[in-house]
Amino acid sequence: MKQYNFHKLLLILCFSCTRIFTLAQESKSEKLTRSFNTYAQQNLEEKLYVHTDRDFYVTGETVWFAVYLTDEFRRPFSLSKVVYVEILDRNNRSVLQAKIQMKNGFGDGSLFLPATLASDRYRFRAYTNWMKNYSADFYFNKSISIVNPFVRLDSTVTSAPKAKIEAQFFPEGGNLIAGVNNKVAFKVNDSFGKGLAFSGALIDQRNDTVLHFSPLKFGIGNFSFAPRSDHQYRAVIRLKGAEKRIFNLPPSQASGYALRLTEMNGKIKVEVTSVGVNQNAADPIYLFVHAHQVISKVEMKGAENNNAVFELDKSELAEGISHFTVFAQELKPVCERLYFKSPTTLLPVHVQSDRQEYEKRKKVSLEIKGNPADRLSVAVVRIDSLSQLTNHISDYLLLSSDLKGMIESPEYYLGNDSLTQKAQDNLMLTHGWSRYKWDAIFKNEKDKRYPMEFYGHIISGVVKDEAGIYKPNVVGYASSPSKTSWLTASRSNDKGEVFFTMRDFYDTKPLVLQTNRKTDSLYHLELSSPFSSDRASEPTTSLHLNSSNEKSILTRSVGMQVQDVYAENEDNKKANLKLDSISFYGKADEIYLLDDYTRFPVIEEILREYVPGVMVSKQKDGFHFSVVDRFRRRPFEGSPLILLDGIPVFDENEIMKFDPLKVKKLEIVTSRYFIGAADVPGIVSFTTYTGDLAGFKLNPNHVTLNYEALQLHQEFYTPQYQSATSNRLPDFRSLLYWNPAVEIDESGKQTFEFFTSDLTGKYQVIVEGISISGKVGGMVTNFIVRE
Question: Positive or negative CA dihedral for 127, 128, 133, 138?
């Protein structure tokens, strides 16, 4: 009986230990899931795509572009209201910049290319303020070429380049583990990123051949072998007509984890093998799979014979790129790799012209069919030897936006045939995706330096004292002279930073930044650039032209100059904005149009004679204002906010010296008012006839500058012809039509018209777009213009 009870007790004890172990492992899975979900909630993912009218320009032309802002599921994203656009030269210096207003995830703009730009290849990039919290590799980036026809081309542009051979090797999972059959992907390309065809051999330190290999597509492929820990391996690359090149493989490790992913019949198998890490069946292995910051699978398994095998259905994965991470003890990431699932359907778009051939200056009618509420952008441009298309919205948002480095012909990888699927996997193995830092995820780091611009453009700066030390808890003010008072305030944080949200702030305007001179006279504000100082790791490749491009460059240059002379007034039209004509404080409690009253020679007499809402007193240090609280019928304590054309004036003596004959209107707010971080006991606002301070001298400590705010929309010009001879001015347009905001109506189609120019040749219609559900796609078609 005692023996029976002993065995029973032992059984219960074993069961309890197993249960405790299982619960402990489950809690780690939950920790992994919880940590990642918390990170995802605090790190909303934004993606950008920019459709430019073309990719090759001459100086004097304009870059027209449409901006698409999406969330991680490629749906139009409306949180950020501003996108920053730059053109960088090969030295990563910004040569052109613009701030583009976004509405419901869409925006558009233009950049004029001045004759100061040199002929070269440039980087066009775009990002939001929120995206600046992450790597510049995940900004929108594309290459554009610019030729300056007025400057003799440099020999580096016209001479044939010497391409270097570059080779990289990527063990699946991250490490080459000795004694295990490892899949190793390779990428062999020239210095311009173009994949090379070659034959290769893997040799060891004794020059014995281990295997032969060759690329599948674009210089990319893979081979498998089991390395030995005491061997060094090299790859011999032979190109046709070139000397062989030898590259070292990463050294094999005697201990670690190896990952191997295979796919068959809609099932994905992930096998994890541990070598020399004291792994036993009791030690868990975790597989974590996610895409677009959404978890697809979390599974834990014990290692049997140093192996753990996971299986999942392909249907469990989202379209696009999924991230597979393997964690070992203490949730340490030990292997990573990417997997691509092709989209089942793209955005259905069909575009058709009413004819396939046209004469010069004839009307073209284009009909686009799609789904209602689809948002599209359309460019119609002449094809010449300079034409190039580097990316499309579908391959960029589904593929390129989640990968570092250049991808050759990314549109190829959206197919579903077996060869394309093999090429997809090779691409995933050769492009690391380091958006996620697991240490930061587990630590739940919340600090975000750059806020999301929910309400409009944010101007940032820092408050410093005379010694250059950052000062917290100081109120700064940002304003712009205007007939309509506009002002915002911000209190500096512990780093001395202030952030001013600028609503409806367009074009180039004077901007004044200051602190309260009465209370903070020793402090000053320094403006921070809203543009990112970070640069992508991918270098800009060189521009190389030859004699076959000469005619195309001449045609484009002549066309640009003709348009500049004969259509200058039409090309520079900007949209008229209907902005709020009411001051930031709304309708004032007291409003005085001074021409309706006796004109006094000094401000003091105006306030004393017919402005009951303001009391003026004179003390040893000069004049003091106080506003009468309309609710309590007695003066507020402290000075009100005094404005001149919207600019705060903190010294009443200065406003008293101002000529009242320059003042058109006086407004009084007779209640306590909150402006951002500032709490003011009433407002006294003077408005001049001109709205530009009328010669009032600002304090030298103020930051005063012409600030380039949100870009005003510029209208694309296309002429209208009644007949081919109705207008005798020359027309050498190579860009016939540009529309950044085509919306499909309820009938499922949209029709628009334009006229051909005097340039004959083949023209391309490029349509790109997105649906509200996140489907992306487009279409390219052609027509011909003859004599």
Answer: negative
